[in-house]
């Protein structure tokens, strides 16, 4: 089971970064190259505890659907989502946030997953999947950082409370 750890410092308030991380619209924007879209459950705005989102996207040349459930939320500090159906055997994505002394936000992603197909899945992880998943998370975090720092967040549904 690969465990991916990413850390990002964002020059934006904690509350904005936390809510952008829960934004369906930011997620879609960050993964445009995969034609990612929400097709069931929460379709726009900010996901809340107990909600599901079903995503459709093209990954590794194959259009796939994946449904995730928001299992835990501690406002402005933590939330987690877990796959309830999709291509993986399982996955859990934890999002951690901390306000730094200078007002910036430290964001940490912990992403754990198990590939399907047993031993073949382990080989796929080593050959390409772990790197592919890391790059997807890095792209998402780069987009989140840019949107948070340049004020584009003001245009996204669900972010009105920060205006």
From TrEMBL:
Keywords: Cell cycle, Cell division. InterPro entries: START-like_dom_sf. It comes from the Bacteria. GO terms for biological process: cell division. This is Cell division protein. It comes from Nonlabens arenilitoris.
């Amino acid at each position: 089971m690969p465990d991916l750890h990413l850390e990002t410092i964002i020059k934006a308030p904690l509350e904005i970064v936390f809510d952008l991380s829960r934004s369906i619209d930011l997620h879609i924007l960050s993964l445009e190259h995969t034609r990612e879209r929400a097709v069931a459950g929460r379709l726009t705005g900010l996901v809340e505890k107990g909600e599901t989102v079903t995503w459709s996207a093209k990954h590794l040349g194959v259009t796939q659907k994946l449904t995730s459930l928001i299992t835990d939320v501690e406002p402005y500090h933590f939330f987690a989502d877990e796959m309830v159906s999709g291509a993986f055997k399982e996955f859990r994505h934890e999002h951690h946030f901390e306000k730094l002394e200078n007002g910036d936000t430290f964001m940490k992603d912990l992403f754990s997953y198990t590939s399907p197909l047993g031993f073949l899945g382990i080989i796929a992880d080593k050959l390409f999947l772990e790197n592919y998943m890391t790059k997807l998370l890095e792209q998402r975090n780069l987009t989140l950082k840019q949107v948070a720092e340049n004020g584009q967040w003001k245009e996204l549904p669900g972010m009105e409370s920060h205006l």
